Amino acid sequence: MGIDMTIKPLIILPDPVLRQVSTPVETIDADIRRLADDMLETMYDAPGIGLAAIQIGVPKRLLVLDVTKEGEEKQPLVFINPKVVHSSEERSVYEEGCLSIPDYYAEVERPAAITVEYVDREGKEQAVEAEGLLATCLQHEIDHLNGVLFIDYISKLKRDMVIRRFTKAAKTRGAKAI
Ligand code: NI
Predict the structure, then answer these.
(1) Which of 18, 70, 103, 168 has the most CB atoms lying inside 10 A of its own CB?
(2) Which residues are catalytic?
(3) Torsion-angle region of residue 6: left (phi > 0), alpha (psi -120 to 50) or beta?
């Protein structure tokens, strides 16, 4: 990571940018590495355990994660153009939250284990078999790249309530609401 990392402002629900589908990263150059570093800095500052580029307004298929526990040594992970190539039949339920939907949590059921192919920060092709929190977090972040939010998995009634609450809050702070 570089020394000139910048904390970026987070895009918050109901900003329509969050519904944008991100496009693949073509070349892994200094700009992309810089973006990944800024995203990690922003994620650690929040603090959060995962962040997709679209959450700072960049519609590129790039996400960062660190699912280590507090007090453990940091393990920043960068996933470029990640693709789920296998999902387990077995499913698991986690209480999820999102930096773009602050202070809201809900249980979401997803495949318990997945295999993801991706390109790393150095431009090398990689594959990871993930389970537990890593599997959930990867699926949550990959959803962001497709304009999907974890509230899309809860009941419409609950989702509408959350969106209403955030739309009201956005109006209060003078942001553009949809
Ligand atoms: Ni999120």
Answers:
(1) 18
(2) 141
(3) beta
| Strand (E) or helix (H) holding 51 | strand 50-52
Task: Give 104-117 pLDDT, tens digit per residue.
Answer: 999 999 999 999 99
If DSSP codes are grouped into helix, strand and coil, which group holds residue 153? helix
- In the chain, what are the domain boundaries? 16-170
Tens digit of each residue's pLDDT (9 = 90 or more) over 22-79: 999 999 999 999 999 999 999 999 999 999 999 999 999 999 999 998 889 999 999 9
The rounded Å distance from CA 57 to ligand 1 centre is 13
Domain at 16-170: CATH code: 3.90.45.10
Can you name the residues that pair with 93 across neighbouring β-strands? 109
Report the separation in Å between the CA atom of 140 and the middle of ligand 1, taken as the mean of its atom positions.
6
Whole-structure pTM value: 0.94
CA of residue 122 to ligand 1 center, whole Å: 24
Helix (H) / strand (E) containing 139: helix 132-145
Q: How far is 117 from 160, CA to CA, in rounded Å?
A: 34
75 Cα–ligand 1 center, Å: 19
Distance 44 CA to ligand 1 centre (A): 14
Distance, in Å, from the CA atom of 170 to the CA atom of 164, rounded to the nearest integer, reads 10
